[in-house]
Amino acid sequence: MNDLDPKPRPRPAPRINSLRVFWNVALTGALLATLFTTWTPLGLMPYGLTDRFTEMFAPLDDSGLAAFPTATPRPRPRIGIVAGHWQNDSGAVCPDGLQEVDINLEIATRVRDRLTAAGFDVDLLAEYDDRLNFYQGLALVSIHADTCAFINNEASGYKVAQALGTPLLIQEKANRLTACLRARYEAATGLRFHAGSVTRDMTNYHTFEEIHHETTAVIIETGFMNLDRQILTQGQDQVAEGIANGVLCFINNEDASPSGAP
Q1: Pick the residue with more confidence: 190 or 29?
Q2: Does residue 161 form part of some domain?
Q3: Cβ burial, residue 124 (10 Å; 0-12/13-18/19+)
Q4: Which stretches of the chain are DSSP H helices?
Q5: Is the pLDDT at 105 greater than 90, yes or no?
Q6: CA distances from 35 to 29, 170, 218, 257 (A)
Q7: Same domain, yes or no, for 99 and 161?
Q8: Which of 10, 106, 136, 172 is 20 to 30 A away from residue 153, measured at CA?
Q9: Measured between alpha carbons, how far is 147 from 189 in angstroms, rounded to an integer?
């Protein structure tokens, strides 16, 4: 090389494009964040982020809106109706073979149908039904009929009783259910309360000791199978209406006085 020739100049160092570096770092960070988020359990995400992802990935319905599982409906209020003596024995029997259990079952079935039509879940229960153990419901009514033997000309009418040892927790409710049944039953059937003949078999009725202590329960003797035989065998719709209306009066907190409107 000729010494007179100028020496070659060193090449300048390449300039760093700071803007390009910035964007490369930003894109790399976004990619890593996305991958981290994708593989991170939902339970470890910050508060509220889980819900956002649930909404983002929820399936869409035909309208284009996110479709979530349908909420499970709450169970409807439950009522228990016991058909006295059913699946146990005949109960009282008339000389011509008419059995109390048949009257009770027919009336109880009609009561169940009326209350079901009113929007309640109703259990038709046998006398010693296994479901009575710790039974929980808005109310429980055990349906019976009184003796077929002739006592006197005054042996006509119905009776309603609650447990002798009704817990204080539901005492007021038991009083209301009793009052409602009396008011509505008399209005539907025209029968009168047979005062003075509520027996210990009614107030110490075995079912009262079996059900849950918060279930309000009563027992009703719908009439005497002797003098009240006609309405018990031919007017069962009236009898069932009186009982069903009494239960609805209690549940709906209606006026329980005899003149109260159903």
Answers
A1: 190
A2: yes
A3: middle
A4: 18-38, 49-57, 100-117, 171-189, 200-203, 206-210, 229-234, 236-251
A5: yes
A6: 10, 60, 66, 72
A7: yes
A8: 106
A9: 19
Domain boundary among 6, 26, 57: 57
Helices (H) and strands (E) in the chain, counts: 8, 5
Six-digit token string for 228:
């009240």
In a domain, 12, yes or no: no
**Which residue type occupies 245?**
N
Can you give the pTM of this predicted structure? 0.71
Radius of gyration of the chain (CA): 38
What are the structure tokens assigned to 249, written together? 């009066």
First-to-last alpha carbon distance for the chain, in angstroms, is 124
Q: Can you read off the two tokens belonging to residue 31?
A: 């990619």
**Which amino acid does the sequence have at 60?**
L
Burial of 45 (0-12, 13-18, 19+ CB in 10 A): middle
The tens digit of pLDDT for each residue in 26-49 reads 666 655 555 544 444 433 334 344
**Axis-axis angle for helices 100-117, 236-251 (nearest 10):** 50
Could you report the per-residue pLDDT of 165-181, keeping only the tens digit for each? Answer: 888 889 999 999 999 99
145 Rama class: left (phi>0) / alpha (psi -120 to 50) / beta: beta
Which class for 106: exposed (0-12), middle (13-18), buried (19 or more C-beta within 10 A)?
A: middle
Q: Dig out the tokens for 76 from the structure.
A: 């409807």
* 183 burial type by CB count under 10 A (0-12 exposed, 13-18 middle, 19+ buried): buried
State whether 161 and 32 are in the same domain: no
Domain check: are 42 and 110 in the same one?
no
